[in-house]
Amino acid sequence: MTSFSQPHPAQSPAELLAFANRVIAAQSFSTLIGAQFTDITPGGATLRVPLREDLRQHHGFAHGGLLSAMADISLTFIGALALGPNVLTSEFKINFVRPGVGEQLVSRASVVSSTRRQAVTRCDIFAVTGDDEKLVATALGTIVLADVPESAASGGEDRGR
Questions:
Q1: Count of alpha carbons within 13 angstroms of residue 105, beta-carbon side
Q2: Which terminus of the chain has a smaller tally of CB atoms within 10 A, N or C?
Q3: Domain ranges of the chain
Q4: Mean pLDDT across the chain, nearest whole number?
């Protein structure tokens, strides 16, 4: 997860949302799929992705890789709010409930439990058409503090060395 600086707990909801979107804007894959956070609180994160034609599989449903990427982004970001900015996904499991068909996908993530070094997080992903939402996947993940140099965590020049 790329970060700029850890959000201060006293940040307003608008400041926290702007911070979250700066983080994913710095990740080329997140921008490739059109991911954007639309709501962030210390207890929850909502991520939206327009369900474009190029993000569908051969039957016209949301590709499982897209749903998995949304889960990873959502689970890790909410874990970072609990643990701090230097985190990685240790593991996650996703259950595909039904095919994703609609105009956009929405992921809602929360922290199930956290300690000083790891957070168990979950998210539900919905396909949205108009005002109608249908659950298409649910995921559970473990997010851990990473031993990465500060410059790598902040998107600095030492990344990948």
A1: 32
A2: C
A3: 13-148
A4: 88
